[in-house]
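hey so u asked for the seq, here:
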Amino acid sequence: MKGLKRETRAAGNMDPRLVILSRGPGLYSTKQLARAAEEAGWAVRIIDPLKLTVLVDDEGGRIYYKGWPLECEAVIPRIGHSITRRGVHVVRQFERMGVIVINSSSGIARSRDKLVACQLMTEADVPVPITANVGAWEDTIRAVNQVGGTPCVIKSNEGTHGSGVFLAHTEQQARQLVYQMLERDMRPLVQEYIQESHGKDIRALVVGGKVVAAMRRRAHGSEFRSNFHLGGSVESVDISPRFEEIACTAASKLGLDLAGVDMLESSNGPLVLEVNSSPGLEGIESVVGEGLVAGEVAKLLNRRLEESQAESGIPSSEDVTEMHRESSKARD
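ran it, structure tokens below
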């Protein structure tokens, strides 16, 4: 069974099909994205990416779900850190099949590697904290001095949601943390500590090349990590054009249509701390309005669908409706 052709559905004015790749169908972000897409005219399915089978061949390959070929016009990957490699493989296959993806497989992979992300962003003149990747614990003190001394931040290269991030107040603490990470086959980073931004940061949500919302996050109590999932508080914030420019450039350089760009407010201006390819929506929509960011993603989906149809010569739903009107007038 080959499934319905994408061209037939679009030309026939049927609802375009969207697959949201998520292992958490009940999560706030997943539900909001699904709801917004449905309201924008999409037929939505939420599918666990680990339950998909990928076939690679000379004709572009296929993806199967529970024994049947999976056909859709667009995919939104909500790929968790623990399944990054598998998720990237699945998204890459959808790309080979000509499906619209928000975000791309390469964008996801780049954002999940903090060192690679830093390298790419500095190439685009995006300011980041001074960062060192330490391969041997004996080099820890040198790295600490190169990033400005203690206190400094020690973090895992692949961690998310603030996991694997520590503040080392002494060189001895820094060496112990680096040693422990290396013993666990983790890739430790030693990073400059920005005192004036202790316990707070700004997250800007970039959708389709523009900032659609921003919030300031503050850590809870003595915690220096400001992640919402760690109990931090959030408030809506209007960011300056400079912050917007940096956030959009960072997302663009990593190849992300949808990104949560975390920035520190240093005395020298904004510094990009991290770029998240599957940003949570609950925290930011709690202060900017429920469904606001998800609605912007749905608008982006519709724009990409129209662009895809225009490139392939397929009439849009508006064109089909107009043709039906003209046909009715001719019969009258």
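The radius of gyration is 22 Å. Confidence is low (pLDDT under 50) at residues 1-12.
lmk if thats what u needed
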